[in-house]
């Protein structure tokens, strides 16, 4: 008859065999649930299409599964908020709804420190101000208000180069486009994020071409000079009551 040590050893071996069999059976089980993963690298601000993803069967914890997609058409047209590597699981929090495809699109360049320090994202709404020199003064004009950012790309950053952003936005009329381009070309630009601003707080300007005094502008000014006598004293004239005769 086997002693107690031999019996214990046999039980341990049997338990190990059962555990190995259970793991093997569990790892060999196939799952029928498939989730969306990327087929290529996606940069921040890029628009995703159904061709950029595929379905892969996988088991996900409930908390991860809640933010995953099992239909490629659900991400068609959305904007990536951050970089996505090829084969990465696409999560709802990494995407933003695509802006409505209306209006004329154009791009402009701005220095990164003057564009919310580069923290803008596709889908943000922005106000854009153009500052031009006017003699010894500066004139600042709001040329875009509440414009939706369609795309962002970084520029510069090499040795000795300053960093910048190329921002693509859309405008809803040819007149606005002409006025905005005229004001943006050759001006020092400042971009303010206005994503949570109400329309009344960020009224849409109607900029005229640069150099036109009719443009919507915030302008520094000096007090108009009064006429003076040759001696330099201020000359005033007071009309008596009933004057005019």
Structure commentary:
This protein is an alpha+beta fold. The chain has 2 domains: 34-96, Alpha-Beta Complex (Type Iii Antifreeze Protein Isoform Hplc 12), CATH 3.90.1210; 104-219. The protein contains 3 helices and 10 strands, in the order αββαββββββαββ. Strands 5, 6, 7, 8, 9 and 10 form a 6-stranded antiparallel β-sheet that branches. Strands 1-2 form a two-stranded antiparallel sheet. A two-stranded antiparallel ribbon has the order 3-4. A hairpin with a 6-residue loop joins β7 and β8. It is elongated, with a radius of gyration of 33 Å.
What are the main properties of this structure?
two-stranded antiparallel ribbon, elongated, single chain, alpha+beta, 245 residues, six-stranded antiparallel beta sheet
- How far apart the termini lie comes to 143 Å
The computed structural class is alpha+beta
Task: Provide a count of the helices.
Answer: 3
Strand content: 25-35%
- Residue stretches low in confidence (pLDDT < 50, at least 5 long) are 206-245
Percent helix: 10-25%
- Overall form: elongated
- The Rg value, from CA coordinates, equals 33 Å
Following the backbone from N to C, one meets helices and strands in this order, namely HEEHEEEEEEHEE
Largest sheet: 6 strands, antiparallel
What is the strand tally?
A: 10
What do the pLDDT scores average to?
74
**Domains counted in the coordinates: how many?**
2
Short summary of the structure?
The protein is built from three helices and ten strands. The chain is of the alpha+beta class.
């Amino acid at each position: 008859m086997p002693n107690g040590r031999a019996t214990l050893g046999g039980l341990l071996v049997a338990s190990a065999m059962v555990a190995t069999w259970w793991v093997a059976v569990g790892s060999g089980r196939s799952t029928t649930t498939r989730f969306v993963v990327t087929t290529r690298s996606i940069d921040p601000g890029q628009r995703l299409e159904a061709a950029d993803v595929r379905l892969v069967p996988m088991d996900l914890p409930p908390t991860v599964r809640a933010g995953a997609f099992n239909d490629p058409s659900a991400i068609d047209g959305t904007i990536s908020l951050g970089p996505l590597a090829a084969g990465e699981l696409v999560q709802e929090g990494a995407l933003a709804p695509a802006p409505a495809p209306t209006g004329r699109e154009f791009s402009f360049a701005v220095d990164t420190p003057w564009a919310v320090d580069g923290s803008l994202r596709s889908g943000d709404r922005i106000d854009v101000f153009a500052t031009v020199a006017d003699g010894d003064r500066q004139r600042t004009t709001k040329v875009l208000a509440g414009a939706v950012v369609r795309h962002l790309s970084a520029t510069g950053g090499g040795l000795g180069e300053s960093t910048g952003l190329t921002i693509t936005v859309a405008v809803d009329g040819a007149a606005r486009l002409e006025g905005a381009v005229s004001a943006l070309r050759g001006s020092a630009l400042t971009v303010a994020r206005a994503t949570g601003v109400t329309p009344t707080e960020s009224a849409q300007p109607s900029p005229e071409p640069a150099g036109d005094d009719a443009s919507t502008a915030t302008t520094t000014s000096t007090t108009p000079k009064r006429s003076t006598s040759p001696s330099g004293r201020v000359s005033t004239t007071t009309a008596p009551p009933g004057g005019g005769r």
